[in-house]
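re: ur question from yesterday

yeah so i grabbed the chain u mentioned. its 421 aa long if i counted rite. heres the sequnce exactly as i have it in my notes:
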Amino acid sequence: MTILTLGLNHNSAPVSIRERLAFPAERLHQSLRGLMQLPAVREAAILSTCNRTELYCGLAQDDPASLIDWIAHEQRLQKDDFRPYLYAHTDAETIRHMFRVACGLDSMILGEPQILGQMKTAYQAASEAGTLGKTLGRLFQHTFTAAKKVRTDTAIGSSPVSVAFAAVRLAQRIFDRLQDQTAVLIGAGETIELTARHLHEQGIGEIIIANRTFDRAHTLAAQFNGFAIALNELPQHLAKADIVVASTGSPLPILGKGCVESALKARKRKPMFMVDLAVPRDIEPEVAQLRDVYLYTVDDLRSTVEEGLKSRQEAARQAEEIIDTEVDHFLAWLRSLGVTETIRDFRSHAETIRDEALTGALRALKNGKPAEEVLDLLANALTNKLIHLPSAQLRQAGIDERHDLIAAARELFQLKSSSDT
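ran it thru and got these structure tokens back, copy pasting raw so excuse formatting
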């Protein structure tokens, strides 16, 4: 059986293509069952995120063409619309690819941890749909083990590699418990979404999102159990903020010194941590002059991000070495499957010989032959029948000068040369 990955990601395809190939969660079970209807498919799983869609399949033969046809039909697309963006991996490369994806080595942000959870969701969906077999099921489990080892043995996820991550890490240094803090996020773009995600993952007490477009703020806040306000409501809510992160496209500052000073008075001088990630700035530089305000700009965080990226790149090199080892382990397990059928057939053959010899021995006992004589006959019969065919094959190997087969037999049966005794 061939193990195939067929898919596209943020490196191979633009978002306009990725979004058309995405499989909604509510349709995933049906899609998996449909995929299993293809004659070549024996096992299947689908990973679908905003940055990638990948099919993992166990195939009776290497036949990506039928999968491409199925994708076109399932997603109601023309093959030429998406085929140029696809990549395919088979067997060892599929194993390596899945390990790298789970470890965040193939992600837009190197080492990001969300993809591992998404792979576990893909595994769960396939498991519930009944489309995982022995090979893919074991491969997913080994993938999770490899990812855990990389996370444990390297610093792949510990260093900030985005200004949003760096801002949250800095907040963790300033506040002992983020669970007791309230964060006000100004804007609703990608940077603020990423900041909200990091804060939510770290257990922030409350998130308030302020944006000029309220509907966009509400949609974003709902993802993280927060609530939204219009930008003009910000002065009324600013006093609640222990953490303020701003990132809008405004050409002028959103927060001035006077507004922040009023909020500090209402907070009774309780410190406020502020990060301005916008260019041009969203927070007036003069705010930094206020006591009890810790204001950082994107430039202040840039060196942290650069150091974090270097750290993750070094960790990624270590991760690749771990993955090499884990790929070898899984390939060894796959190779062991190839001999399982042979072992089963060999055992069945031996058991047939045993049953025939035992039947003959029981018959002899019923006919009154002495037990010792029957045991002797049984032992001889078993020995002769078990070694007859191998002896004949070895004799023929000698005639054919198949020295490799003879050497293999000596190794298999651990035979010592007569000169060694």
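noticed a couple things. The longest helix spans residues 298-366. also The mean pLDDT is 91.
anyway ttyl
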